[in-house]
Amino acid sequence: MSPSRWRSLAGILATAALLGLYARGGPAWGLGFVALVPWLLVLDNDRTTLRVLANGALMSVVFVAAVFHWFGAAIGAYTEVGALTATAALLVLAPLLQPQFLAFALVRQWAGRRYGPVLRALAAASAWVACERLMPKLLGDTLGHGLFPSAVLRQVADLGGAAGLTALLLLVNEAAAFAIEQRKRGARTLLRPLALGALIVVCMAGYGAMRRADLQAPVANEAPTLRVAMVQANITDYERLRKEIGAYAVVRKVLDTHYELSWSAIRDHDADVLLWSETVYPTSFASPRSEDGAALDREIQGFVDTAGVPLVFGTYDRDGQGEYNAAAFLEPGKGLLGFYRKTYPFPLTEYVPRWLDGPVLRRWLPWVGGWRAGDGARVLPLRSADGREVNVVPLICLDDVHTDLAIDGARLGAQAIIGMSNDSWFTAYPVGARLHLAVAAFRSIETRLPQVRVTTNGLSAIIDDTGEVLANTAVGDQAVLTAFVSARDPSPTLMVRWGDWVGRAGIVFLLALAALAAWQALRRRAVAAPEVEPIIEVVLLTPFWRALSGALRLSAGLGLLWLAFDMLARIGLQVQSLSQLRLFAAAVLLPSVAAWAIERRFAAQARVEGALWVLDQRRQRIELPLASIAALRPWRLPLPRSGVDVRLAAGPLWTRGLALTRPEALRRLLTATGVPIAWEGRFAAGRADLIQARADAHRRRLDHPLVKFALFPLLLALVAFRLHQVIAFGGAFGEYYSYGLAAYLTGLLIWWASWSIGLMLFAAVLRVAIETVVMLAMALRYAQAAALRDALEWLGRLAFYLGVPAWLAWRLLSTG
Hints:
The protein is α+β, with helices and mostly antiparallel strands. It is built from 26 helices and 20 strands. The chain has an eight-stranded mixed sheet with strand order 16-15-14-13-19-18-17-20. Strands 5-4-3-2-1-12 form a six-stranded mixed sheet. Helix 12 packs parallel to helix 13 (291-307) and helix 25 packs antiparallel against helix 26 (785-815). The two termini are 50 Å apart.
């Protein structure tokens, strides 16, 4: 390995080590401002995109190894595959689990080639937070969570959340790295980025100190207050207990332990409300599966009635769609107030989407649960026997790593957060429980709502509106923790008003920066002298063959239009039968292929050799003296596609027309030898410019018909077809098992054709919109019409290649 490679590896490992210390919390939180510096210096020395991508991927791997090594061991214990196997899988998947490193590195290199250090740093930070917004983490982790031990700096999260802290940390790291790079250019150059980084930290500290002092200032509090008792029973591993003593005995043991601790909370702590942890009642409440279950439901309600205090506990809820991990709110004498259903069940353990579920997945991952996702935040009241009431938003386990639920709860009038979690799989890995607690505390900082959080075996905690953990139990303890919550309505923070806005702002900033780069490139290209192309691809057509080919193209277009009208008028925009496929083949494909064959038959290459214009076809060579050509006239009717006629110096038009996509390139080729050849006819030059601009904006790979209307639709069809198979036939190959291979392949063909036709129509709509805007710009004599076209073409490609899959993904998520 070369010395430069050793230095790169050392820089990556140094950053991983610093981030590992930073993630442990405590006084190491200050490392967050410099931990990335070694890696940034490595990226600055990488010149190729491949090297940058490789370094980003390697950084994600060593980051997972340094910060989340415990997670692999926890997964291995939960799934019984072993710590080594699970950790190896976690490291292999690291670039997918921590993709922000790749996005950051690639965007940083791209921006660094075009802009100065400030825009480079802003673009890279935007890429990081945008990536985390678009691809949320399993544990909701982000770099900003490491500042939780700083009681002052973490207060900035009420402005931009943990993502905002991440962005500021990245900018400070960039300033430090740039200062090191510029150290040889003098003290003034060195101090400038250091001063900027220091200013960011000072502003964070100043705001945090002011905000913390404001929140801790004594206020008259006459609002109703409730004493909430959190019961941590420390009963874990229900599956092992179920095998040892049976399912009913497990429930009996859990309930009896909670009854005993709850009576202690009422007797010794004068509790107004009881809070039990997630899934403490491991069956469906109010929808019993057996008479024993119904008896246990009545027993729990009887306990609440006897105790005279409301109870919130983790259980299951059921409806026609399936079963949910839920929190039940019981009131004495009134019964069930309502359920909150967990919105974010843990993927591949509690939940899988319906389109992915099936016997194969269940065979590979036998531990996967079958819970459905809930439908968002819900605010419910806690009411004491004497009428005091506090509105709370419940969050169950993974719910508290997402910012939206707590914010939605605050908007709905919540006055406190109730957290419920089963962190028993962190029993041997308390670092995971500490991380979960820190992430959950950010929900209180962002909304300024106090939080009471109960877990099965720790860490149960009381969190105030500054994010301070006022008290907590230890992992493995059996304990009761009590806290006061008041019906106080805090002033809405910027996060409550705007939501989790930092990631969205990052996306908008990157799009604006990319648009600026595209615009600048187009401006440079517009002022550059056009090059003369030595060979122009053309199609030589006599009037007969042009008419025939044009009629075939027109017939294909009308056939597609008729098919679309027929589907919209009768059954919707989808293909449902082989007869529609036959119509599509006869009316659209067959004439298109025939027109293509004609054009292939008469294809030629145009070049200039001395004083001759040479047109080479497969079986003949045509030579025309350049002096015999007077002008070119664009076709008014672009059939079979755009083209030109040649006006001879003797007066008549040449007997053959030329179908081509680059008419201005042809004119430049012919005039390069000094023979003046002009455009003939009114608006002819404008039409030629319009055609040429379209050709210049064309990208052969992205705009090729086979890519757009065959390969790309096939990818989308495979996803949609699999979902259809699971829903209609119960599995990915259900139709094959039920009706055979022919029926299965026919169904796939119909789905493929349906997507192909739909994308053809969508592309046609985009084409009409683009051409309309460009022609209007040219009619108004807009000087940058070519640049406008190129920008519109790229917007069209984004809508086609990204917008359609995004729409499909949204449909899949909304249905399952």
